[in-house]
Amino acid sequence: MNNIGSAEKITAMAKALYREEKAKKRLDGWFLAREIVCDHAEEYVGLSREMRAAKELEAILQELPLSISDNAVFAGSQSDAFARSYALINPAFRVETFSGYCDPTAVYGDIEPNEEFTKERIDRVREFTRQGDYVRTLSEVYDQYEDYTAEVAFFIEQVTGHIIPDFRPVLANGITAVMAELDARIGTETDPVKEDNYRAMRLTLESTISLAHRYADIAAEQRKTADTTRAAQLELLEKTLRKVPEYPCDTLYEAIQAFMLLWEVMCLEQAPNPFAFSVGNADRIFEPYRAKENLSREDAAALFKHFLVFFNVGDRSWAISQNLIVGGRDVDGNDLTCESSYALMDAYLDMNLPQPILSAKLHKNTPDELYAAMGRFFFSPGVLTPSLFNDDSVFQILAARGVKEEDLADYAVAGCQEPLIMGKDNGNTTNSWLNMPKILELTLNGGRSLVTDRVIHETPMVPATELLTNIRERFYETLSWYIDKMCEAANGASRAISYLPVPFLSVFMGGVESGYDMRDTVHQGTYYNGI
Description:
Blueprint: H1 7-22, H2 29-39, H3 49-63, H4 119-130, H5 133-144, H6 146-150, E1 154-156, H7 168-173, H8 175-188, H9 192-223, H10 228-243, H11 252-269, E2 280-281, H12 282-293, H13 297-309, E3 323-327, H14 339-351, E4 357-362, H15 368-378, E5 387-390, H16 391-401, E6 411-414, E7 418-421, E8 425-426, E9 432-434, H17 436-444, H18 464-469, H19 471-497, H20 503-507, H21 511-514, E10 528-529
Parallel strand pairs: 2-3, 3-4, 4-5, 8-10
Antiparallel strand pairs: 1-9, 6-7
Helix pairs in contact: 1-13, 2-3, 2-4, 3-9, 5-19, 8-9, 9-10, 11-12, 11-13, 12-14, 13-14, 14-15, 17-19
């Protein structure tokens, strides 16, 4: 890292970059992305859903305004994918009014109009979104089950999440290798649907290379007026962006940069407010590149600090439920802790950022050094502590669930602590939520809500003594009825979101092998699927 500065200098820049991000009071990039889609809509009439989605992403990556902060040693940002209202950290959120995420156009009410973003401009894109098949279909689902979601007996979400993409093939071989594989499949595929899907996936990869080159051009332009130190950083950044993720990575710096660009594209594909992606086994992802150049733990930690800042969006770090895990074992019980495990934990301890969540895998052969590294978190007041997962137990549970032995070591933790297989597991884990206390209330009151006095699901009223004598059976009967309704509604939400395919993400979730989009509710796009 001699050409871009000392570990101390890189760390100081990471902390300045985080302060810069925390100062953001507006997040308008997501709106610009949707406006770009709106502007090009007529050009895509007649295309398949998958190719339309690829063309939309291509336009976003070509036209979205980009910048590189003077405090950044990498290019890329998640900020353009998120709105200020993301999830439950919306400052306007009130528990008593919550009935689920029912209106996908509500986000347009979160952007404050000004001279640039006029009300007319916002309304135009909102109406375009409202007229789409996705919103129309989803609205029909919510209308059908409104009696239950309004009282929050259950609620549903139109999500693809939580999931963990697998970017390792691109880091190791470059986008060019994946495109070559897609070309081979296109040349031999006899199913026209799969062939179209492959072409859509390929286009998104081409567009990612274009994004990297756009950032490289910015770095080159900034270098013209930079001082000597910053010019050296920008020279390396430009050189790296001309190389990755198009071609294989050789250094930790290149691997982090490639990963960040892939992540940015993945988020922009689902803007606004993509659904809780997680990093996976980060130490194993990056260790081959750190080891190849024998980069010190201190220098690696300094680069990882910039990597961690990337996951924090705006003044309240909106991009919640992102997870990163270190440590663990292989199927033979061998410990997989490495130097990058400790460098990542060093970075976490020093930065103490809200995102991403840190987790650690433990097992009977976990080295004492990892326990000591975790102890620094546990005994430091005000410091985020890692969540802990027992590989010895999780391996058994996942194997019993049907996970293949060769995939067990690749489980990682997504979102709110769900163990999923990197790049293969579409668990759909936050698609539906069941409110059992509410259902008990309805059971005790003949289906009548004590909040609104409305009858939601009428059941025979019986004397209290008889009801309490048989409460378990009556509760389970009512619960079963609501579960069936919830499943119907949740499946409807999944069908609705299939109108918004994700060809780029599908590349990293098994789509190259299956030929199908990971949101396809008819054909299984991922190897493990909860839909």
